[in-house]
Amino acid sequence: MYTPFQSHQYHSCLGITLITLAAFTTAMLASSAIAEEKRPAQKKTWEPKLYGFCMGMPGPKRRTIAEQSHMLRDLGFDGAGYELWFNGTLEKNLKTIDDAGPEIYLLHTGINLKADGLPYDARLPDAIRKLKGRPCTLCVLLRGYPPGDPRGQQRAVEILRELGDLSAASGIRLSIYHHKSDWTESLLFALEIVKKVNHKNVGVNFNLCHWLMVDGDKDYKPVLRDNSDKIFAVTINGAKVGSKTWTNGLIQPLDKGDFDNRELLATLREIGYGGPIGLMCYGIPGDAKDCLQRSMLVWKTWKADWLNDN
Q: N or C: which end of the chain has fewer CB within 10 A?
């Protein structure tokens, strides 16, 4: 016969069991949390895309956009960068590249800072709209005044804000391409302009060869670290430190030169740069395919090290 006393014993035992179970669960959760804290944080996988840039100029063999796209794809490149087309071939060239497989990661165009003419090609706004949805950065080369001339500042800020709005509406970013002899030939000056523009969609490139030509006596690492949120595009190549010539000097395949690209890439990884990397090929003697192929072999060894380090 089941008595009230036995019922009381049963519920007392059940209560003790539940309390014990709760205490055990709490202890296990606490232990798990401590173990989680002690577990070393996993490194975020870093595997930037690589694209070819200026691989069609100059060179002994001229290739069509279709031929370049297939060459890049076959060699293992993820995409390409070009001057923005205003000759009525933009849509055609985009489709040609899409059909071949690579992405368009960078397109560049010039900006005129002088008030005596149009600031940019009248077809630029429409071209920006046609780039909507692409992982592309639109780079602008600011010209019209000598490097750093204060006369260009107000107009530059106005134009960059305007184009920053247009680019944002298409989901792409706008970046100043610092280039020797341009108004913004120095990356440091380009960053000053970006701060004055104060637009979340306007940033800068880090172009290795032009950095070395103009600011090569300075350390690039603190510059990248201090401006990590404004580095929108990067181009690299093999380079001979201290050279003042492009060919066989500041622009070479990745297996040439003494500049430490691996240190540069480690800094980009450190600052959280998540965009693609462009391989600058301008002015390298011989067939562009040779430069691309040799550079890809080097890139693959670096990539293997990154993956092993993740």
A: N
Q: Mean pLDDT throughout 257-274?
A: 97
Residue 17 forms part of a structural domain:
no
Mean pLDDT, the chain, rounded, equals 88
pLDDT tier at 45 (50, 70, 90 boundaries)? confident
Whether 65 is covered by a domain: the verdict is yes
Which tokens go with 63? 């290739």
Length of the chain: 310
- Check if the beta carbon of residue 227 is closer than 8 Å to that of residue 221: no
In a domain, 151, yes or no: yes
Domains of the chain: total: 1
User: Mind spelling out the 3-state secondary structure of the chain?
Assistant: CCCHHHHHHHHHHHHHHHHHHHHHHHHHHHHHHHHHHHCCCCCCCCCCCEEEECCCCCCCCCCCHHHHHHHHHHHCCCEEEEECCCCCCHHHHHHHHHHHCCEEEEEEEEEECCCCCCCCCCCHHHHHHHCCCCCCEEEEEEECCCCCCHHHHHHHHHHHHHHHHHHHHCCCEEEECCCCCCCCCCHHHHHHHHHHHCCCCEEEEEEHHHHHHHHCCCCHHHHHHHCHHHEEEEEECECCCCCCCCECCCEECCCCCCCCHHHHHHHHHHCCCCCCEEEECCCCCCCHHHHHHHHHHHHHHHHHHHHHHC
- Domain of 228, CATH number, reads 3.20.20.150
Planar angle of CA 269, 53, 71, nearest 5 degrees: 110
pLDDT at 135: 96
Flag whether pLDDT at 22 surpasses 90.
Answer: no
> Per residue in 214-256, pLDDT tens?
999 999 999 999 999 999 999 999 999 999 999 999 999 999 9
> pTM (2 decimals)?
0.85
d(CA 58, CA 24): 73
Q: Is residue 271 part of a domain?
A: yes
